[in-house]
Amino acid sequence: MKSYIKWIIYSLLIVLVGIQFIPTSINQQEITPYTDIRKVYTIPDNVLTILEVSCFDCHSNNTNYPFYSRIQPMAMLMDKHVREGKEELNFSEFGDYSDRKKRNKLFSIQNQVKDGEMPLSSYTLMHNDAKLTANEKKLIEEWITNL
Amino acid sequence: MKKVMTVLMAGGFFVLTSCAGSDSTPTEKPTETTEQVNSSTQTEEVTKKDNLSSILNSYFEMSENLTNDSAADAAKSSEKLSNALKDFQGDQLSNKEYKEVDEIMNSSIEHAGHITENAGDIHHQREHLVLLSLDIKDLIEIVGTDQKVYEAYCPMANNNKGAIWVTNKNEVNNPFMGQSMPKCGKINGEIK
User: Fold this and answer.
1) Are B46 and B54 in contact (CB under 8 A)?
2) Which of A139, B13, B29, B132 lies at a C-alpha separation of 20 to 30 Å from B80?
């Protein structure tokens, strides 16, 4: 019985060490491309701060990685979220979107922020500062309405 | 202890070799081009003059489902709408028109997809109807249709910001408010 438990612990250790070798990509970019939303619209500072803190990690070409996110299996989960997030909306490529797509995305941002669907609760669980206050939600909504 | 180390290393190498292959493939960027719109599998025989009929009919059906507060039916008719949009052929359009229609297709297929996926969330379906209706209106203005179609407007839809929808009846059956206020709104005029 004892050796049985020992083997389970060994196997878990092996897997934990093993998965550390899984390569992950790092989502970071030195330059601010001309298609960046900051170059497409004038964004007030208080709104920009909200976007940077609460949205850019998954919706831009620059993720601010916390230390634990480089450890597996967190790194894999993070990678997946960033990949899916950018596919849906990428603020670094916003300028490349057609006018219709821009309108669609802004509309969705407004509604999802208002309904509390974004940022995802699984994200704010680890990033408490990314949670949006009622006032911050209002700032986003007003900014988009006035664009 | 020596034994443990050997096992650990062996395990590490095993996982490394087994995962590296599958994970290192570069993420392919989906090519969203005109091809997507053109790649219809079953093109219905429609007259060039009104090849929007299947698109419009499924849109009207979906709109009626939403007026009746039936999210599940709206999801089904929205799937029909997606297929009709994907089947659309814009052969007779000029290059400029084609580019615009291509963007409308990308956008409207996405909205229709959301309506299909949210069979349990009529609030979310109606959100997408706001922009989908603008797409459909623009599509009619570019491509044209034999049917008589009207633009209707409800000031209370879209969180009181107002929204339009397209209808083939010259009367208000509000898909945004549903059975709570089916007659809220007005007909703005015919879309040509």
Assistant:
1) yes
2) B29
In contact, A37 and A130? CB cutoff 8 Å:
no
Q: Which helix (H) or strand (E) holds B153?
A: strand B150-154
Residues 15-74 of A with CB under 8 A from B: 15, 17-23
CB–CB contact A21 B15 (8 Å): yes
Q: Cβ distance A127 to A57 under 8 Å?
A: yes
Per-residue pLDDT of chain A (147 residues; tens, 9 = 90+): 678 899 999 999 998 888 888 877 788 877 788 888 988 898 999 999 999 999 998 999 988 888 777 788 888 888 888 999 999 999 999 999 999 999 999 999 999 999 899 999 988 888 888 999 999 999 999 999 888
Residues sharing a CB contact under 8 Å with residue A98, sequence separation 6 or more, in sequence order: B103
Q: Assign 3-class secondary structure to B62-91.
A: HHHHHHCCCHHHHHHHHHHHHHHHHHCCCC
Least CB-CB distance to B131: which of A18, A104, A114?
A104
- The residue ranges of every structural domain in chain A are 2-145
Tell me whether residues B11 and A15 touch, CB distance under 8 A.
yes
Would you say B52 and B93 are in contact if contact means Cβ atoms under 8 Å apart?
no
- Chains A, B: CB contacts within 8 A come to 60
Q: Is A114 on the interface with B (CB under 8 A)?
A: yes
Burial classification of residue A98, based on how many CB atoms lie within 10 Å of its CB (0-12 exposed, 13-18 middle, 19 or more buried): middle
The helix/strand count (H/E) of chain A reads as 8, 0
- Indicate the average pLDDT of chain B: 79
